[in-house]
Amino acid sequence: MGKADFFFDQMLKENSVQGRTKTTAHHWGLFAASGLLMVTMPAYIYVSPMFDIPVLEGASQFLGVGLLGGMLLSWAYRSVSLQRQINWLATTPPPKANEKVAKKEREEAMAAHEKKAADVCCAYALCTVNISFVLLWLLTAFYALPKFSTDVSSKLNHLLSVLGPSLLLAFKATAAF
């Protein structure tokens, strides 16, 4: 592949819908904070008398599961957001281009349109992945694992019921993308 072909491919990629969709640092921070919050919330139930895991004894597990599950959910948020953003930009017409408007103003309008799409799709990803995680966590922790075996320890229940849905959502979102 020559230099001209490489630059032509790069130009096509940058000007395509997929080339224009990016995950900003702001969205990554939002995804990380939300993912960490979602996977650490079940820890409150696991330290309650229902599961009775001592806080100090389970702290390392809560931290490890929280960090790994948070990273997995962040990846799921990103994948869902980008997929939705690509669909949005492909189906929603860009701002009307007026011949009297300067090229710079048209580019600014297009950038604002893409930023709005990114923000809306970020909110959509947060809502859908969070709802899916909570439902899968409840199903796993209180139905599937107790039905599988009544002798599942609280620590193993926590590990499987938090990381299982996180892993499933990350892989499902990536496969759909």
Automatic annotation (TrEMBL):
Q: Does the keyword Repeat apply?
A: no
Q: Which GO terms describe its biological process?
A: SRP-dependent cotranslational protein targeting to membrane
Transmembrane ranges, per UniProt, are 28-47, 59-77, 120-144
Key word Lipoprotein present: no
Gene Ontology terms: cellular component: membrane
Q: Which InterPro entries match?
A: SSR3 (IPR009779)
The domain of life is Eukaryota
Give UniProt keywords alphabetically: Membrane, Transmembrane, Transmembrane helix
Q: Which Pfam families match?
A: TRAP-gamma (PF07074)
State the name under which the record lists this protein: Signal sequence receptor subunit gamma
Q: Which organism is it from?
A: Chrysophaeum taylorii
